[in-house]
Amino acid sequence: MERQTILIVDDAEMNRMMLSDMLGDQYDYVEAADGREALRILEKNVSIDLILLDINMPEMNGFEVLEEMNRYHWIEEVPVIMITAEESVESMEHAYSLGVTDYIPRPFNVYIVRRRVENTLNLYVNQKRLMRLVSDQIAEKEENNTLMVSILSNVVEIRNHESGDHIRNIRRITELLLHQLVQKTKAYHLSEEDIALIMTASSLHDIGKITIPEEILNKPGKLTKEEFEIMKTHSTAGAQILEQMKYGQDKPLYRYALEICRWHHERWDGHGYPDGLMGEEIPISAQIVAIADVYDALTSERCYKKAYDHTTAINMILNGECGAFNPLLLECLTETAPQLRIVTGVNGDAMPYRFELNRLSEEILAHADLPKNDRVQNLLATMQERIDFFASTSGGIQFEYDAVSRLADVTNWNEPPQYRHIVKNVTRVNDFRYLSQHDFKRLRDAMDATTKENPEFALSILFPVGNEYHWCDLRVRTLWSDFRPDHYIAAVGQLLDPQMKEEKEFPSQGGPLDSTSPVVLQNIRCLQSVFDTVRLIDPTTYEVLDLDEAGVLRHSKQHCAAFWNNEGVCANCISARAYAQKSTLNKLEFTSTDMYFVVSKYLNLNGTPCVLELLSRLDEGRWIDANGTRLLLDRNHDGNMDLFLDPVTDTYSRRYYETYRAHLEGMESIAIIDANRFKQVNDSFGHPAGDAVLREIARAIKDCIRKTDILIRYGGDEFLLLFPKMSEEILERKMQEISAAVENIRIADYPELRLSISIGGVTGVHPITEAIRQADLRMYAQKQAYNHEHQLDN
C-alpha cells in the first residue's frame, strides 16, 4: 500500500519531532515552521493526506491557515487535526467552525493521537476512493464518446484518402477561433461547455462524404460540373444521417453536429450551399468550422493539389478566394495566425495528454458533482501553460524551473538520449558554470521583473558550444498562481543557438552554387510575401547585395543606409552587430515618414558571410511579435493597453519602457524632463493639483512632438522622451520649444500656478540605458541651476 503523507505545522522543531516519533515510520512527513510555509507546501503538493496544525505561530497562525484553506476549498480535500496547547472552548468552537476534523489539546496521549490520526486517514481514504470511482466513470464515459466520434470521423478520412491529421486540425483550429471570438464579443453567448461541444461536433463535419462515390471523392483532377453537384450533396447527406438517429436529438451536441454538417459550406454573402444562407442566418458553429475546414484544406496536400504554405493560405482566405466569411471571424483568423502555424504543426501523439488535461480541468472539476479541488485546478492550469509554451518551441535546450524547490529540470535536445536530461539546483553556483555570473544575474533580474500580465521575455547570452562561445537566444516564460500574485511559482524556457539552426536551414558546405541557391531563393521569395522589404547586406562595406537566379551574390553599389535617408552609417546598426556575433537581432527604425520593424539575421551563403535584413513597415494600430514578446504600438488599441498606459497623464508608463527596452534601441535622441517645484505644488495645493499639473505638462509635450516620438512617464514628475531620426541641433530646438510650451500652461482651477521644467537630452548615445543616464545628468544640472536661481532646496 502506498505510504500516506502527513504535513506537521508547528513553529517548535521539538514538537514536530515528537509528533513524527509518536506516529512512527509508517507515514511520510513534511514539516512547516509557520502557516505561510504550510500554504506554500499545500499549493505545490497535492499528495498531502493529513495536516497536524498548531494555532500559535509567527507569520500566520493556525486559524489564518484554515481561513485560507476555506477560501481555496482545500479544506474539502485535506483533513486537518488541530494539535495545540489552547484548551479554551472558544478556540475549539472556532477551529471546528473553520472545518477541522478533530481537535487534540496538549499534553498528548500517544495512543489517542495515533488512533485519531488513523481514523481520520481511513475515513478520507474511503471518501477519495469513492470520488475516484465516480471520476473514472465520468472519464470513461467521456473517453468512449470521444472514441466513437473519432472512429466515425476516421472512417470518413480513410475513405476520403485524407491525412489522418485533418480532423485533429479542425478541432484545434475551431478551438482557437472560438476562444478568440469570445474574447472579442459576447454576442454569441458561448460558454466553455459550448466550445467543447462545438469542437467535438466539428469532427463530424464531413460524415456525409461516406455517401459520395469513391471515384468522385478521390478524383485526382478537377471535378466536372455534374461531379461537383454530386460532391455538394455531402452536406445534406450528413444532416440526414444525423436526423435518422432515434435518440439524443434533444442534446446540445446533436444540435451543433447537425448545424455543422449541413451548413459548413454556407458563405457570408449567400453564395454557399446547400441552402444559400446569408450572414448571421448561418449558425456560428458552422461559420467557425467553415473557416477551419478551408484553412486546413489549403495547407494540406490532397490527391488533386499540393499544400499551400501558411501565409499564402491566410491571404487567400482574407482576399475572398475561398468565398466570403464573417468579417469578425476574419479578424479572429488574423489574430490567431501565429498560433495556427503552431497548433497545426504539433505532433498528434502529444495531443491526448493535452486533451486529458482539458477534460479533467473543465469537465470533471468544473461540471461534475464532486468537491472541487482548487489546488488540482491550479496545477492543471500551470501544466497547460507549460504545454503551450513547449508546443511553440522545438529543439535546443529546454528547461522547467520550480521556484519553491529551486530545481531546474533541463533537457538538451542536442545531446544523445542517454545524456539529454539533467536536474540542476540553482542555489549551487557550480551547476551553472556555463553561464557567466553577469548573464546569470541578468537572467535572474529579468525573471524577477516579470508580472502575471507580462510573463515572457527574451535575452541574448554567450554560451559555450564545443570549443567556441556563441550568442544564443534565451526565451523564458514565468508561471503564476492566484494564491501568490506577488511572485512567480515556476518558469519554462528554451535556449537556441541561431548558428546551429542556420546551418540546417542554409547549408554552407563549399559545394556547387546550385546545391543551395534554389533553397535560398525559395526562402527569400517566401519572405518577400511577408515583409515589405527583404534584402541581403554586406556590413563590412555597407552595401546591398543582389542574389541572381544562379545563386551568385553581387555587390550592387547601393549603400544600405540610403533606405533610411542616411548619408553615413546608421547610429544603431544591428546588421553589423548580427554579422559580428553571428546572431539574429531586431530593432525599430524610422524614415522621415514611416516606422519599421527590422530583423537582421546572419547567414553564410556558400562560404560568403552576409546579413539578411527583413523590414516590416508598421501601421498605426499594429502589434508585432519579436523574440516571444508582443510590442505594443497603438495608443488606441483595446487589448492590454491599460498595462502600458499611465492613468494620470495618458502617456506610456514605466512598465512599457522596461518591457520593450530592447526594441527601443534604435532611438537616435533621448530627453529627460522633470517638473520644477512639483513637491511645493503638492504641498500647497494638494495631490489633485499635482495630477492636473502632470496632465497639462504631458499635453503640452505631446503638442510639440511627432507621431513617431514616444513619451513615457518615467517616474513621479519625470518624463522620458524618445526621438527617432533627430539631430543634436534639432533636439536642442525641440527642448526649447517644449520648455516654452510648458511655461505657457494656464490651469483654470489653479490660475496662480506658473509651471516650468528642467530638461536634458543627448543624441547618438547607445545603448539606451547610457543615453538616459547622460540625459538625466544634463537635466539635473539644469535643475540645480534653476533651484540656485530661485533659492530652492533640491
Task: State the strand order across the main sheet.
Answer: 8-7-6-11-10-9
Beta-strand portion reads: 15-25%
Note the total helix count: 26
| Total beta-strand segments | 23
Shape: globular
How far apart the termini lie comes to 72 Å
CATH topology of the largest domain: Hypothetical protein af1432
Q: How many structural domains? A: 5
- Radius of gyration (CA) equals 32 Å
Mean pLDDT: 78
Major sheet details: 6 strands, antiparallel
Explain what this protein looks like in three dimensions.
- This protein has 794 residues and is α+β, with helices and mostly antiparallel strands.
- The chain folds into five domains: 5-133, Rossmann fold; 162-345, Orthogonal Bundle (Hypothetical protein af1432); 396-492, Beta-Lactamase, CATH 3.30.450; 503-618, 2-Layer Sandwich (Beta-Lactamase); 631-789, Reverse transcriptase/Diguanylate cyclase domain (Alpha-Beta Plaits, 2-Layer Sandwich), CATH 3.30.70.
- Helices cover 43% and strands 19% of the residues.
- The protein has a six-stranded antiparallel sheet with strand order 8-7-6-11-10-9, with helices on both faces. A six-stranded antiparallel sheet has the order 14-13-12-17-16-15.
- α6 packs across α14 (327-335).
- It is globular.
